[in-house]
Automatic annotation (TrEMBL):
InterPro entries: DUF3828 (IPR024289). This is DUF3828 domain-containing protein. It comes from the Bacteria. It holds the Pfam family DUF3828. Gene3D superfamilies: 3.10.450.50. Residues 84-190 form the DUF3828 domain. It comes from Rhodoplanes roseus.
Length: 205
């Protein structure tokens, strides 16, 4: 039994010494890592020891990933609107033009805080039932001929007039905007008949 085991080819193969730089380690032995140029000695500890090479790769990858996450955390998710016209134009981008699968203005807190002053945000949060979307003067929409006029700016206040058609019906709205430290936000909107966004939200409580 002992002789048969001693002559077993599989066991004999296990007893053979492993060649230096075999397989995966051999391929890493010939690659150039960051900080190691061709001038690095072939038998230096950094190149001769595969464990050291893997440690350098892991350290470099971890450092890069940490830096990327830090930059993403520091950057704002969305920049505030630089002009009053931009705020109104981006608002109507939620509706598109013609037949579309868009759902209109989202009413999540993040979107509301980006587009509106705090008083309007609170109005949306307290509203229980809004019969119609104020910005399209209805529930359904298929917009066309949306025209945002240049803003009339006085200090940190501005007015932007909008002409559009919803399902062929012409609409006119005047937007009032306020400028804060980070940009412009919508403070109210008004129809030619005198109804306003603030009044609509108050009636919906």
């Amino acid at each position: 039994m002992g002789q048969q085991l001693a002559g077993d080819p599989f066991l004999l193969g296990l007893r053979q010494p492993r060649q230096r730089g075999h397989g995966l380690f051999q391929r890493f032995h010939h690659c150039v890592l960051p900080g190691l140029g061709p001038e690095a000695p072939e038998h230096s500890p950094a190149t001769a020891n595969p464990v050291n090479m893997f440690k350098r790769i892991l350290t470099s990858t971890t450092t890069a990933a940490t830096l990327t996450l830090a930059l993403l955390a520091a950057a704002p998710a969305r920049a505030q609107f630089a002009t009053p016209e931009e705020a109104v134009t981006k608002l109507y981008a939620f509706y598109g033009t013609g037949k579309t699968d868009l759902m209109g203005l989202p009413q999540d807190k993040k979107t509301l805080r980006r587009f509106f002053v705090p008083a309007i945000v609170q109005g949306y949060e307290k509203a229980e039932l809004i019969d119609a979307d104020f910005f399209i003067q209805g529930q359904d929409f298929e917009l066309s001929d949306v025209k945002v006029a240049p803003a009339a700016v006085t200090g940190d206040k501005a007015t932007v007039a909008v002409e559009l058609k919803n399902m062929g019906q012409p609409l006119h709205l005047d937007f009032e905007l306020a400028k804060g430290k980070d940009g412009w936000r919508i403070a109210d909107a008004r129809t030619p008949k005198g109804d306003t966004l603030r009044k609509t939200l108050a009636r919906s409580r």
